[in-house]
Amino acid sequence: MLNEYGNVSDNKSAEIVSALCNHEINMSTGTVFNIRTKLANKLMPTVEKIKQKLIDGGVLGVDETGVHVNGKLNWVHIFANEHYTLFEHSAKRGSHCKDEEGILALFVGILLHDHFKSYYKTKTLTHAECNQHILRYLKAIIEIQGHSWATEMSDFLLEAKGMKEEAVLAGRNGFSPEEYAGLEQQYIDILDKGNKEYEEAIQGKKHIRSFNEERLLLKRLREYKNEHLRFLSKFVVPFGNNISEQGAAFVKRKIKVAGGFRSEQGATNHMVIISVAASARKQKKNIFQTFKRAFEGKDPLTSDMS
Hints:
By secondary structure, the chain is of the alpha/beta class. It contains 12 helices and 5 strands. A 5-stranded mixed beta sheet has the order 3-2-1-4-5.
């Protein structure tokens, strides 16, 4: 628990345990690694159940973050919904999109992500884009270019989010076709204004590189309109991808302390263990008791995974 959940290094974990036991137990770094490996092996059946729960869910958030394994850049892939989180790692960023036995090959619901193009190669999925990222991009355009369309789009997205939340509280499970069409038209009108502002801003200029991000964002928001408005057309879809981005933060805290993983086995152990820890935390379970149950040969998440 100190090592994987608390992000304490192997040698520091050994030092802490030895100190707590008044050095009656002189634990080595190798012993800590062996304990982690034993725990990961015991948790493998639970991880398979987590994977199945994610596959069976209607909405799946995905994200990825870089990590060094044995000195080489690898990628941690995060798959998450409201109740479960799964971490996997591979040498290539998009390898999980080609895995015929992976989650994305078996999942048939709505995939929520931040526009990583490889996800769109999976044609059987319905896609939803994270609008939290869009708010950040719009903020940059407002600060740098000062264009009013970006402010209007930011306000529109937040107001539409609020309208949806009010509808949900009222017991509704969706907007009427007329209501959605009205919101969609507002979105299109703002983009039309954005294109006009952009064209006026670059008129007569030879160097327009500083406007490139604005151009690309306008193009993305129009081309992927349905995906960005999915949170309005399907109420089960969140506004943003916090469910998997929180998982990325989970990994980054480990990297900040450890810098990376010395071996493939160490990285794999970590992904298995934190998959169970993150899922247990979402279900408000005691992490220590979760690991304790695993060492006792019991299913760590029994009550929620039967």
